[in-house]
Specification:
Keywords: Flavoprotein, Oxidoreductase
Radius of gyration: 20 Å
Distance between the termini: 31 Å
Shape: globular
Protein name: NADH:flavin oxidoreductase
CATH topology: TIM Barrel
Organism: Streptomyces sporangiiformans
CATH architecture: Alpha-Beta Barrel
GO molecular function: FMN binding; oxidoreductase activity
Number of domains: 1
Number of helices: 13
Domain NADH:flavin oxidoreductase/NADH oxidase N-terminal: 44-386
Order of helices and strands: EEHEEEHEHEEEHEHHHEHEHEHHEHH
Strand order of the largest sheet: 5-6-7-10-11-12-13-14
């Protein structure tokens, strides 16, 4: 479908860790003028289990590394609260390490365990709620992405389904034993219970992009011969056990989201499922285990997932499971993040095609990442029809913020 264009833009806003600083004016760009339609379609509420989200806009999780000691401070609370106040319906936090020593690789990425860390997160949730928003933490274990000696626990070995890195070579860690599996499952369940206790509105399990859960799902990294390896259904066992343990640790109406992707950080052409039938085999055990909604991560939301259908990955996910689905992938941008981070600025991308898909219920919600990172007011501008104030994404202006 061709993009319909009109006039635009104004001020670039850079969402920094401690404040929002305003950047110089940028050249005018073009965008669809469907202001009334966008406001109508995106402002509809949606239910995720027991949670009512006031509109269809989700803030996608984006790693920032501004939490020394794994403790989110007042600047982190302000960062999320600004976006909630500007109309984001649901915030998914940056990835947070669960309480397993091998879960991470940085002492500046927040953790979702420990008294000081959880006290910091409680203040984040409080700030977002005070601003009128909803928020869920993304719970994360990086698995074999971890390298030997990395913080926050330098002596902890990397762990994974078969001790393999994403390129298929042996890593510096180890294949997980049953005790390792049980410990990680318990860590996710404990983190979810803590999230509910300190006031969050749900949780998201990070099962995408080549991290631990995804390493079990993908045949390229899962070479196990026990019950956790083999065919696609067997490879879902670890993820399904995490989801079931989380479900048991929280209230029945507490939403559990599951983020997954076909692609990996070092394998962009990787596939978990080559067909709708294989995707159904992957998703069915997760839905049965207690996942309430799926966050289907793609690099470009407008690309069809399988031949013979225009449905994207989120569209197929909803069709196959009947569960609410969130789409994500270059929303508000033109081009993928590889080109953007190479210094080639990306103009604001029109959203008529996105609105068409939402209107036909191909998926339920839209996650926005870099556009919201760059401009905290993005949701308010779109919901209010103030397209003329949208700022074109410019990776160079973000500095070290990721």
């Amino acid at each position: 479908m061709p993009w319909r264009v009109g006039r635009l833009t104004q001020t670039q806003v850079n969402a920094c860790a401690h404040t929002d600083r305003y950047l110089p004016r940028s050249p005018r760009v073009t965008l669809s003028a469907s202001a009334h339609r966008a406001a109508h379609i995106l402002s509809r509420p949606v239910s995720l289990n027991g949670l009512t989200v006031p509109n269809r806009i989700v803030m996608a999780p984006m790693t920032r590394q501004f939490s020394p000691g794994g403790i989110p401070g007042e600047d982190v609370a302000s960062y999320y609260a600004r976006r909630a106040a500007a109309g984001v319906g649901l915030i998914v936090t940056e990835g947070t390490y669960v309480g397993h020593e091998s879960a991470g690789q940085s002492d500046s990425i927040p953790r979702f365990h420990g008294a000081e860390q959880l006290a910091g997160w409680a203040k984040v949730a409080e700030a977002v709620h005070a601003a009128g928003g909803r928020i869920v933490p993304q719970l994360w274990h990086i698995g074999m992405v971890r390298k030997a000696g990395e913080p926050p626990f330098a002596d902890a070995p990397a762990v994974g389904p078969s001790g393999l890195r994403l390129d298929g070579t042996p890593g510096t860690g180890k294949e997980m034993t049953q005790q390792d599996l049980d410990d990680v499952i318990a860590a996710f369940a404990q983190a979810a219970a803590e999230a509910e206790r300190i006031g969050f509105d749900g949780v998201e399990l990070h099962g995408a992009h080549g991290y631990l859960i995804d390493q079990f799902l993908w045949s390229g990294t899962n070479r196990r011969t026990d019950a956790y390896g083999g065919d696609l259904v067997a490879r879902t066992k670890f993820a399904a056990e995490i989801a079931a343990a989380v479900r048991d640790s929280v209230s029945p109406d507490f939403p559990i989201l599951f983020r997954y992707s076909q692609w990996k950080q070092e394998a962009y052409d990787a596939k978990l499922a080559e067909s709708p039938e294989e995707l159904e085999a992957l998703l069915t055990p997760l839905a049965a285990a207690g996942v309430d909604a799926f966050h289907a991560s793609t690099r470009r939301y407008w690309l069809p997932e399988f031949e013979g259908s225009d449905l994207n990955l989120a569209g197929w996910t909803k069709k196959l499971t009947g569960k609410p689905a969130i789409t994500v992938g270059s929303v508000g941008l033109d081009g993928d993040f590889i080109r953007a981070f190479a210094g080639e600025g990306s103009p604001v991308k029109g959203i008529d095609d996105l609105l068409d898909r939402l209107e036909t219920d191909e998926f339920d919600m839209v996650a926005v990442g870099r556009a919201l990172l760059h401009d905290p007011q993005w949701a308010a501008k779109v919901l209010d029809g103030r397209f003329g104030e949208l700022a074109p994404y410019d990776a160079a202006s973000l500095g070290s913020l990721s």
